[in-house]
Write a structure and sequence with these properties.
The complex is a heterodimer.
Chain A: E1 9-10, E2 15-19, E3 25-29, H1 31-37, E4 40-44, E5 51-52, E6 57-63, E7 67-71, E8 76-81, H2 84-87, H3 91-94, E9 103-107, H4 119-130
Antiparallel strand pairs in A: 1-2, 2-3, 3-9, 4-6, 5-8, 6-7, 8-9
Chain B: H1 8-13, E1 17-21, E2 24-29, H2 33-42, E3 45-48, E4 53-58, H3 62-69, E5 83-89, E6 95-105, E7 108-113, H4 118-129, E8 135-138, E9 142-148, H5 152-156, H6 162-170, E10 176-179, E11 182-185, E12 194-200, H7 201-213, E13 217-219, H8 221-230, H9 267-276, E14 280-287, E15 298-301, E16 304-314, E17 319-327, E18 333-338, E19 341-348, E20 353-354, E21 357-358
Parallel strand pairs in B: 3-13
Antiparallel strand pairs in B: 1-2, 3-9, 4-7, 4-8, 5-6, 6-7, 9-12, 10-11, 11-12, 14-17, 14-19, 15-16, 15-18, 16-17, 18-19, 20-21
Classes of the chains: A alpha+beta, B alpha+beta.
């Protein structure tokens, strides 16, 4: 069973979104996603100053197997990308919810957070999609 | 339902991620494909390659038959035990499969072909055999293991039958030896020293268990693919197939043109292509920009377009490498279309890595 922490929200594309104290939201991929993708060897982050609309392909992650898009789970301006992934993309595999975060976004519409699943709903979603 | 090798349960119990490969349920990795790759470059790994097909060719015409069937010439196999890498071509010079053929005695040869091409290979081999006094029979009851890496033979030698141990340990590349149901060849698909073994199921399962207990790491098809790519070894169906000849697949060296009177299958078409000069060639690429090259990506090189035939991430070089078919005049650098971006790559001559060392300029 993959890990699904209760302190954040989830998208149907297997991304997690966590609202931080400073109003930014941190985004990453779930344990289930990293497991399915296999070991990551390259992460291509959005360019500085990028503006993301919900649903846009904004990050490319390449595993030993294939390239995959990460879709922005909410809209906003890019605040920070996790630069550590340039040298250590495997952090996403080792620590998908902590050190392996992808980007921080300044949300343009915080209400979009309410449209995402909570941990229970995402766990249910995983159980249904694997069955 | 895909086929399962005799080691299937062991793979699953070891936590392997299983994938369909050529109709076989095979291990992709046992947790970390990259660690498995490094284990083979630095120490030793064991691969279940029982999906591969073993075909024995016997009879008084065996040599004549194989000299007709194969683009390389088994007459080069002067001593029993010696093996030879060859392509098997169709009449237009396209590659039906690549294989290794071992001479066991004057009228007994063993041919090891790919899993995904098994049916077409056996059909073709049987068809050509009509004109010769030979029997072509698949040895489906055996399993096949590859033990590879700088420490492979020293760690695995104690696990071989006493009668074979020293001979197998001393034999040079492409030599084989056998005893009863054991067949041990100094070959592989990783660019490292090691053995490929054809054994019966009981002995094979025992060898797997003992090899793992001796510290030889189980490795899946994922590591097998990155190891062979670094070693510049072609993968059938990706780097070459029925529509490409050895001359455009960096396999011209495997075609035995002499003696000129040997009329192997595909020779006429190949000679014509050779005379006109092949339009394309298979080269190595090292990505200078960011990203990962993948099979099927478009390449702009020389006077035209080409394609990445095998691409990925090299764990040894820590960057993306590829094999690509490009116009014959391409040299220097080229542009690879990675998703929507055009990225620069350098054309090099494979292999990229052999025997643990990087052989191309980084």
């Amino acid at each position: 069973m993959s890990e699904v922490p209760g302190d954040r929200k989830y998208s149907g594309e297997h991304e997690w979104v966590q609202l931080l104290d400073d109003g930014l939201v941190m985004i990453g991929i779930t344990d289930h996603a990293q497991e399915a993708l296999g070991e990551l060897v390259y992460v291509e982050q959005p360019e500085d100053g990028a503006t993301l609309a919900k649903g846009d392909a904004c990050i490319v992650i390449e595993s030993v197997k294939a390239a995959s898009d990460v879709y922005a789970p909410i809209s906003g301006a890019l605040a920070e990308a996790n630069d550590a992934l340039a040298d250590e993309p495997e952090l996403v595999n080792k620590s998908p919810y902590e050190e392996g975060w992808l980007v921080k976004i300044d949300p343009s519409d915080p209400a979009e957070l309410d449209e995402l699943m909570d941990a229970d709903a995402y766990s249910q979603f995983l159980a249904e999609s694997s069955g | 339902m895909p086929d399962k090798t005799p080691l299937y349960i062991r793979h699953v119990e070891a936590g392997a991620r299983m994938v369909d490969f050529g109709g076989w349920d095979m291990p992709l990795h046992y947790g970390s494909q990259i660690d498995e790759h490094h284990a083979v470059r630095e120490a030793a790994g064991i691969f279940d390659v029982s999906h591969m097909t073993v075909v024995d060719v016997t009879g008084q015409d065996a040599e004549d038959y194989l000299r007709r069937l194969l683009a390389n010439d088994v007459a080069k196999l002067e001593s029993p035990g010696k093996g030879l890498y060859s392509c098997m071509l169709n009449e237009t010079g396209g590659v039906i499969d690549d294989l290794i053929v071992y001479c066991r005695s004057a009228d007994n040869y063993r041919v090891i072909v790919n899993a995904a091409t098994r049916v077409q290979d056996i059909d073709w081999m049987t068809e050509i055999a009509d004109d010769f006094a030979v029997a072509v029979h698949e040895q489906a009851a055996f399993m096949m293991l590859a033990i590879q890496g700088p420490k492979a033979t020293s760690l695995a030698a104690p696990l071989l039958p006493a009668a074979l141990r020293q001979t197998a340990f001393d034999q040079t590349p492409f030599m084989s030896c056998s005893d009863g149901d054991w067949f041990v060849a100094r070959t592989g698909y990783t660019g490292e020293d090691g053995w490929e073994l054809v054994v019966n199921v009981d002995a094979g399962c025992r060898l797997w268990d003992e090899a793992c207990a001796a510290g030889i790491r189980p490795c899946g098809l994922g590591a097998r693919d990155t190891l062979r790519l670094e070693a510049g070894l072609s993968l059938y169906g990706q780097d070459m197939d029925q529509s490409t000849s050895p001359l455009v697949s960096a396999l011209g060296w495997t075609v035995a043109w002499e003696p000129a009177e040997r009329t192997f299958m595909g020779r006429a078409a190949l000679e014509q292509q050779r005379m006109q000069g092949p339009e394309a060639k298979l080269v190595g690429l090292i990505l200078e920009d960011r990203g990962i090259m993948r099979h099927g990506q478009r390449v702009l090189a020389g006077s035209g377009e080409g394609m990445v035939t095998s691409g990925g991430f090299s764990p040894t070089m820590q960057r993306s490498i590829a094999l690509a078919r490009v116009p014959a005049d391409a040299v220097g650098t080229c542009q690879v279309q990675i998703r929507s971006e055009s990225r620069e790559a350098r054309i090099v001559r494979p292999p990229f890595v052999r025997h643990g060392r990087i052989l191309v300029d980084e």
